[in-house]
Amino acid sequence: MTSGRSADRKDCVVLLHGMARSSRSMAPLASDLRKAGYRVCNVSYPTRPYDVDGIVERYVSPAITSCGSHVPIHVVTHSLGGILIRSYLQNHSLPRGSRVVMLAPPNHGSEVADRVRHWPLYRWMMGRVGQQLGTGHDAIFRRLRPVGVEVGVIAANRSLQPWFSWVIPGENDGSVSVKSTQLKEMKDFFVIESSHSLLMFNRRVRAQVLHFIAEGRFRR
Questions:
Q1: Which domains, and CATH codes, for the chain?
Q2: Most CB within 10 Å of its CB: which of 44, 61, 208, 218?
């Protein structure tokens, strides 16, 4: 976990990476946010040992708490990170003025997770959390209620995994469909030509993240 401080802005931004990644994957965003004057908490968490609730309790909740309770706390997520913050917000709230930006979140599950959930290598690498991201009756998204915070969603529509794209209905990024990323309560939505795994490195995406945090909408 890393953090930065600014004399001219007290808002805090928590970054939550995706499954089987690390805080390094969110480093370009962290750099952009610090340059813009935000305090940044770039969280690293392990995928294998815990389920979603375990990751939230051990990593997400402490990171948000470290920001304090008297300033806006924005959260930027990639993939699984979107499920983590939604899970956190089932029993907690963020301070007034806080916003959430989700990059390619499997908000309604992923058909790819359905396809590979019983593969031994997948089960070993992704652990319990990997079993929660499908679309079946036991998928975690089915127990998540709408969240009471301004949410912006950015979806990708280019795949580097054609062997998985064919199992996903409609426009997709090789891991999740564009449709599955969306939430009824989202305030704004944006689709960009990028792949799932590279979305957070895209300069245009990073600029849109900063714009939504500041304005509550994406730049058109």
A1: 2-215 (3.40.50.1820)
A2: 208
